[in-house]
């Protein structure tokens, strides 16, 4: 079974530039998550989709971050404009839909390491 | 605010020893407590998980102990091996007002097992 795919794996940009990350979840997983993991910290949920709809974006800095999930499959997370504090690993995860019994198993992709200079 | 506090921040154990990582939570609106293992350059991978109606769960060398009254849970790695060297995160699934099942992660513990 193919895992969660993410690209690019690494990205270096200057502050005030824009950047986009792509995620392809595991086939059949209706729920998709974007997390931000700052060095030395645990992942923090930015946004959660169930199919096409957003179910939680309470911690997404909406003035600069945006995300979409077209057709309930792939998703894109964008930052515009980037700040130095956005340097982190951006992780995508997917799962079966909550509240199904298997929804607790979240599968993570390898992440995109973003460096903002 | 929902929080999960994890300790220690780092841990060094000799091969064959027992590694113990502790977590504590403040909110009772959690219904599932997983542990994730993360190697450098990789995403976190689910290791083992427990529900609050169970006090202990064991899978191979990995055991979760859960104390509901104290709001604490811990991961024990028996016979620790160098291949276990990784960062470990505890987490708790929220069933709060938004009821989206989101995970709240601890800060992580970097484990080094010396040969």
Set out the fold topology.
The complex is a heterodimer of chains A (117) and B (115).
Chain A: E1 5-7, E2 10-13, E3 19-24, E4 31-37, E5 44-50, E6 53-56, E7 65-68, E8 75-79, E9 88-95, E10 107-108, E11 112-116
Parallel strand pairs in A: 2-11
Antiparallel strand pairs in A: 1-3, 3-8, 4-5, 4-9, 5-6, 7-8, 9-10, 9-11
Chain B: E1 4-7, E2 10-14, E3 19-25, E4 30-38, E5 45-50, E6 56-59, E7 62-67, E8 72-77, E9 86-94, E10 103-105, E11 109-114
Parallel strand pairs in B: 2-11
Antiparallel strand pairs in B: 1-3, 3-8, 4-5, 4-9, 6-7, 7-8, 9-10, 9-11
What can you see in these coordinates?
- The complex is a heterodimer of chains A (117) and B (115).
- Chain A is mostly beta strands and 117 residues long.
- Chain A contains no helices and eleven strands.
- Chain A is globular and about 40 Å long.
- The N and C termini of chain A lie far apart (37 Å).
- With 115 residues, chain B is mainly beta.
- Helices cover 0% and strands 57% of the residues of chain B.
- Chain B has no helices and eleven strands.
- Chain B has strands at residues 4-7, 10-14, 19-25, 30-38, 45-50, 56-59, 62-67, 72-77, 86-94, 103-105, 109-114.
- The termini of chain B are far apart.
- The mean pLDDT of chain B is 92.
- Chain A binds chain B through residues 4, 33, 40-45, 48, 55-56, 58, 91, 93, 98-99, 103-111, and chain B through 4, 6, 32, 34, 36, 41-46, 49, 89, 91, 93, 98-103, 105-108.
Shape verdict of chain B: globular
Strand content of chain B: over 45%
Low-confidence stretches of chain B: none
Instruction: Please give the number of β-strands of chain A.
Output: 11
The profile of the biggest β sheet of chain B is: 6 strands, mixed
State the helical fraction of chain A: under 10%
Percent range for helical residues of chain B? under 10%
The general outline of chain A is: globular
What's the helix count of chain B? 0
Write the element-wise H/E pattern of chain B from the N-terminal end onward: EEEEEEEEEEE
Q: Name the structural class of chain A.
A: mainly beta
Report the biggest beta sheet of chain A as strand number plus sense, adding barrel if it closes. 7 strands, mixed
Classify the oligomer: heterodimer
How widely separated are the two ends of chain A?
Answer: 37 Å
């Amino acid at each position: 079974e193919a895992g969660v795919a993410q690209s690019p794996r690494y990205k270096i940009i200057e502050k005030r530039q824009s950047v986009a990350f792509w995620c392809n979840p595991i086939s059949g997983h209706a729920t998709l998550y974007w997390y931000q993991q700052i060095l030395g910290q645990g992942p923090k949920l930015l946004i959660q989709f169930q199919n096409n709809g957003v179910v939680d974006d309470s911690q997404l800095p909406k003035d600069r971050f945006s995300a979409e999930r077209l057709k309930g499959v792939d998703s894109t997370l964008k930052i515009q404009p980037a700040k130095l504090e956005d340097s982190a690993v951006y992780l995508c995860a997917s799962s079966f839909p909550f509240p199904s019994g298997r929804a607790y198993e979240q599968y993570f992709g390898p992440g995109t390491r973003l460096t903002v200079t | 605010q929902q929080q999960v506090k994890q300790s220690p921040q780092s841990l060094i154990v000799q091969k064959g020893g027992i590694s113990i990582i502790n977590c504590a939570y403040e909110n009772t609106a959690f219904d599932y407590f997983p542990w994730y293992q993360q190697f450098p350059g990789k995403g976190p991978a689910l290791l083992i998980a427990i529900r609050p109606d169970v006090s202990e769960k064991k899978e191979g060398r990995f055991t979760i102990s859960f104390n509901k009254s104290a709001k604490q849970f811990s991961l024990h790695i028996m016979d620790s091996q160098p291949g276990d060297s990784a960062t470990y995160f505890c987490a708790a699934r929220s069933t709060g007002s938004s009821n989206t099942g989101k995970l709240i992660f601890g800060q992580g513990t970097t484990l080094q097992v010396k040969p």
